[in-house]
Design brief:
CATH topology of the largest domain: L-fuculose-1-phosphate Aldolase
Largest sheet: 7 strands, mixed
Number of helices: 24
Helix content: 40-55%
CATH class of the largest domain: Alpha Beta
Radius of gyration: 30 Å
CATH superfamily of the largest domain: Class II aldolase/adducin N-terminal domain
Shape: elongated
Strand order of the largest sheet: 3-2-1-4-7-6-5
CATH architecture of the largest domain: 3-Layer(aba) Sandwich
Number of domains: 3
Number of strands: 18
Strand content: 5-15%
Length: 656
């Protein structure tokens, strides 16, 4: 492990203690092998004058909900040091009282809740305190001889602390252990099964002591032959089985979840280990991970339904065995899975959750594999893990997340997503909480969207193979398919029937009709496993009100509408709704340049604005308006509607 300290970067903040605290915290946070997704905490002690001009010692400690990788000055909660020291002297303190009294000691009432380790930071007599959950150190402690190995590596320069619950109990334990300690004789503390503390009045020394301690653990693992696992190729997955498992978990959970396949060489190699079920179900890397990951992943066989039933039954037994009075069982579905020969899966309501689960799982797999080389992977016993999982303070963090957006956990596929109505539909669905696979023949689709909730896929939807590949990519990336907006199309050059070019006619039929049929056919098996599945077909005003010169377009769109009506009848019994939208005069699309608009308006003796609003309601229709209605039709408000055709044109007298 290397130090990222850079003298040039700290030149202008050396006299700013809080600025230095932010800087070194971010150095720790950028290293995944030290902290993951909100793990770890840091602090700095600063003398400040209060409103009365009195000087006070203030502990600025990482606030709850902040991540070391991105923390800023407002992420540190300023707490009166004297109050925290007084709390440390109490014989006992409940979790809720600890939170209450720490908050009462804040000098800024709008600051975040101080870390649950604030009291521990307070009793360490140094200006800067750093705490991480270093993988290498925890890997060594998660073995039957972990304490002995730590003593062998570090000698007397490290204080070894047995595992106890974080918060007041941990602070009190260390307070009692260090009453007679000369702190200058140690470089840090190692909390078994938990992590590492370093400290110093110089932020660079505290930070680099952390790097040195962790590097020693990494070197020890290397010398012991505890290497990382060698990559293996994944077996081609059955994508329908991914969608099935995601469907089963969503129904059991009572809300839609996403799933993501990790078929990397490392994940596949781990899933192929002969004893994978044994070693992967002994508990998490650190106890704080259990809030995110549950105690264990689900290890899959050929029968996913049976696997999930067994997993949930075991969770019920686990809860019943360790529960205390007044505790209610948490949601029992898995957060990750090991799929032998194919890799691993992560489950969660959002893309952010998927990344967290996948990252934690990846680090845990590495630790398990290395610990097995040291004799055996041995996590904390279920009693300690249960206590952490059901710790009221950790559960409070999850509850703060609040209710998700209305389409959270839902998966959509939109064709023609690079521009116009298709692009607007992608943006609208994401705004409502969905994730979206955006398909387009334009290669720029891959870079059209910066949101992690969008997967851009170059796809010619007249090509069956490319359609199937796009669906498989969608399922591997998001877990299934719930919603389809079949939008891609082309408006051919105006040509009367008498002069129709056969190639022009065929192109319109292929893209505006046949490709939609192929897309719907390919998505049906996945929509059958979707959550409240629905299809919206983007038709045209030309269906109820065609015009001369538009036969190639109008006939294809009319056929598409008829296809949608029949699909509604055929798929209704499978729970899949199919509805159609007929837009007209949507001028903010690629086919409408300023020059064309001016020419068309002039032809009708109108201004451009009059031409845009030339409908019964005298209103302009944009791609966003179409997208908003399409999203509504995919949602709950239209859950009892199928086979409908809805114009969105401001009122067209010919259609009316």
């Amino acid at each position: 492990m290397k130090s990222f300290w850079n003298e040039k970067e700290v030149k202008d903040i050396k006299n700013d203690l809080l600025g230095m605290r932010v800087y070194t915290s971010r150095l720790l946070g950028k290293e995944e092998d030290l902290v993951l997704h909100g793990g770890g905490n840091t602090s700095v002690k600063i003398k400040e004058k209060n409103i009365f001009g009195e000087e006070e010692d203030i502990l600025y400690v990482k606030g709850s909900g902040w991540d070391l990788a991105t923390i800023e000055a407002p992420g540190f909660a300023p707490v009166k040091l004297s109050a925290l020291i007084r709390l440390a002297n109490l014989d006992r303190l409940s979790d809720m009282d600890m939170v209450k009294y720490q908050r009462m000691a804040l000098t800024n009432p709008s600051a975040p809740n101080p870390s649950v380790e604030a009291i521990l930071h307070a009793i360490i007599p140094f200006t800067f305190v750093d705490h991480t959950h270093a993988d290498a150190v925890v890997t060594i402690t998660n073995t039957p001889t972990g304490k002995t190995r730590i003593q062998e590596i570090y000698g007397k320069k490290i204080l070894i602390v047995p595992y106890v619950m974080p918060g007041f109990i941990l602070a009190k334990t260390i307070y009692e252990m260090t009453k007679e300690l000369d702190w200058s004789t140690i470089d840090g503390m190692i909390l078994l099964n938990h992590g590492v503390f370093t400290f110093h009045d110089d932020p660079k020394v505290s930070y680099e002591n952390m790097i040195k301690i962790v590097s020693k653990a990494e070197n020890y693992l290397r010398k012991q032959g505890a290497k990382t696992i060698k990559n293996q190729k994944s077996v081609q997955p059955d994508y329908l089985k991914i969608a099935l498992l995601r469907n089963l978990i969503s129904k059991e959970k009572g809300s839609a979840v996403l799933a993501r396949l990790n078929d990397s060489g490392e994940a596949c190699a781990f899933s192929n280990l002969k004893n994978v079920k044994s070693i992967s179900t002994r508990g998490p890397l650190t106890p704080d991970h259990i809030i995110r990951t549950k105690q264990n992943p689900i290890v899959l066989s050929n029968n996913f339904e049976k696997d999930l039933t067994s997993y949930i039954d075991n969770y019920h037994k686990y809860f019943k065995k360790y529960k205390t009075k007044g505790q209610s069982e948490l949601e029992p579905t898995p957060r990750s899975a090991i799929w032998p020969k194919r890799g691993t899966l992560a489950f969660g309501p959002t893309v952010k959750h998927l990344k967290i689960i996948d990252d934690i799982s990846r680090h845990t797999r590495k630790a398990i594999f290395q610990a097995e080389h040291l004799g055996k992977w041995k996590a904390l016993p279920p009693t300690d893990l249960f206590e952490m999982e059901y710790w009221s303070l950790e559960q409070a963090k999850l509850k703060k997340a609040g209710k998700g957006k209305r389409m959270q956990g839902k998966i959509a596929l939109v064709t023609g997503g690079a521009s116009g109505i298709g692009k607007a539909c992608v943006e609208e669905l994401v705004a409502n909480g969905a994730v979206v696979a955006a398909l387009d023949i334009n290669p720029e689709i891959v870079n059209c969207f910066t949101q992690k909730e969008v997967l851009g896929i170059k796809c010619d939807i007249t090509n069956n193979k490319q359609i199937q590949t796009a669906i498989e990519k969608t399922v591997a990336h998001f877990g299934g398919l719930d919603m389809v907006i079949s939008n891609a199309g082309v408006f051919p050059k105006s040509t009367k029937i008498a002069k129709m070019n056969s190639a022009l006619w065929q192109k319109s039929i292929d893209l505006n009709l046949t490709s939609h049929q192929r897309l719907i056919q390919a998505t049906i098996p996945f929509l059958e496993l979707g959550i409240n599945a629905a299809i919206v077909i983007i038709g045209s005003k030309n269906v109820p009100a065609p015009g001369p010169g538009a036969s190639a377009y109008s006939v294809a769109k009319a056929g598409l509408t008829q296809l949608g009506r029949i699909a509604a009848m055929e798929l209704g019994a499978k729970g899949i709704r199919v509805n159609m939208l007929h837009p007209n005069a949507v001028f903010d699309t690629a086919i409408w340049s300023d020059e064309i608009l001016e020419a068309r308006a002039k032809n009708y003796g109108l201004t451009v604005q009059e031409y845009k609003t030339n409908n019964v309601l005298r209103t302009e229709i944009t791609s966003k308006h179409v997208a908003e209605l399409a999203a509504e039709m995919l949602g709950e408000k239209f859950s009892k509607v199928t086979g409908a055709q809805i114009p969105i044109d401001g009122g067209n007298d010919r259609v009316i």
